[in-house]
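Structure (tokenized):
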């Protein structure tokens, strides 16, 4: 029985796809582990999902929800919101580690986060989809319940975001700034 080159190539292609398919089905992601000393997930570097300072069930003040401790609420699937008022700076610092970013501020209103970034002097470009996705990834990793993460580097908008962030840090309610936040989110220069 004489096989043609096309038949041999087809058989090799089938064998290769079976081998690769078997490899892909057996690969599993490493199980995330929590570092007991820092409260962070060692595989992602993000805050741990249970009993971490700054994580509180929505509508509570960093305590347990209806008599459950934080571990129970995590196990039963109760979603916890990131405490942006107390811990936005931690996420801002992680975003600041992106090579193009010198500093940023985050404002969260409802299920929308607005991030204003200032680029390093060495970076001569503008906001790109890649940078926006890296920033949005950090914000959503902290608070997966967010639906929209809007990012801007427009100098006027960033200056306003920094002012609003300072006002929130000094006690002003973010709810009072909803219309300002919404107008920047809808700005044509803001990437969502």
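Design, position by position:
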């Amino acid at each position: 029985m004489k096989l043609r080159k096309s038949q041999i190539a087809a058989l090799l292609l089938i064998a290769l796809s079976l081998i690769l398919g078997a490899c892909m089905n057996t690969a599993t992601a490493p199980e995330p582990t929590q570092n007991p000393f820092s409260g962070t997930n060692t595989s992602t570097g993000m805050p741990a999902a249970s009993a971490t300072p700054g994580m509180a069930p929505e509508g509570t003040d960093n305590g347990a929800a209806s008599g459950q401790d934080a571990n129970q609420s995590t196990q039963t699937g109760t979603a916890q919101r990131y405490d942006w008022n107390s811990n936005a700076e931690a996420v801002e610092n992680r975003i600041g580690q992106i090579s193009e970013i010198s500093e940023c501020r985050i404002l969260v209103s409802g299920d929308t986060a607005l991030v204003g970034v200032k680029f390093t002097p060495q970076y001569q470009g503008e906001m790109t989809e890649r940078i926006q996705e890296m920033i949005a990834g950090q914000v959503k990793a902290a608070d997966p319940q967010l639906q929209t993460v809007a990012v801007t580097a427009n100098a006027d908008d960033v200056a306003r975001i920094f002012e609003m962030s300072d006002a929130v840090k000094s006690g002003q309610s973010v709810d009072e700034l909803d219309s300002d936040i919404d107008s920047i989110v809808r700005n044509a220069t803001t990437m969502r």
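Reviewer-requested clarification: Residues 5-26 form the longest helix (22 residues). The two ends are 61 Å apart (CA to CA).
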